[in-house]
Amino acid sequence: MYELAVFFHILGGFIWIGGLLFVQSFWHRIILSDSDDAARSLYDAINWSANRVIMPAALTVLVMGITMVSVSGAWAFSQIWVILALVLFAVSAFGFGTWTDKLFATALLRLEEERMSGAGYRAAAQKLIRVARVDGFVVKTILGLMVFKPSF
Ligand code: HEM
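Above: inputs. Below: predicted complex with protoporphyrin IX containing FE.
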């Protein structure tokens, strides 16, 4: 049972971190695109996959992480690396996740209303890529906590 939790925890981590990097490359592709339709379909693809792949992977990481700490005598919620991992998880999933959703929703709404040119997509992608980069740093910091398990 424990090994299964570790397996899905790490698998979820791969998909989450890999997914964030993939999304960043898509933002770049939108910024470079000179076709409105291409930018629009990339935008929709990111939105679709973020909600159906990255978010479930992040939730799997959290549920399996809490399970591992709960069932194993080796870990405790009082350990600083576990506390930091949970705090940074909340910052990433609920902070950047919500922020990204808001930026998405606003940009999509504006795009719907004004049928904006590719410039609109590119401007929105510029903003979202900055969020994705900071979020990527936060998630990699959690990964560092996992491997080094610091006890200050
Ligand atoms: C971005 C989020 C996270 C990622 C990518 C991640 C990834 C990993 C990885 C790769 C390991 C294996 C490290 C090793 O064997 O040295 C690990 C171990 C572990 N993680 Fe996470 N983790 C994340 C968040 C969390 C959270 C929020 C918790 C706590 C609630 C947690 C609890 C644990 C525990 C207890 C282990 C030790 C498992 C063991 O070695 O038996 N993780 N994590």
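The chain has a mean pLDDT of 83.
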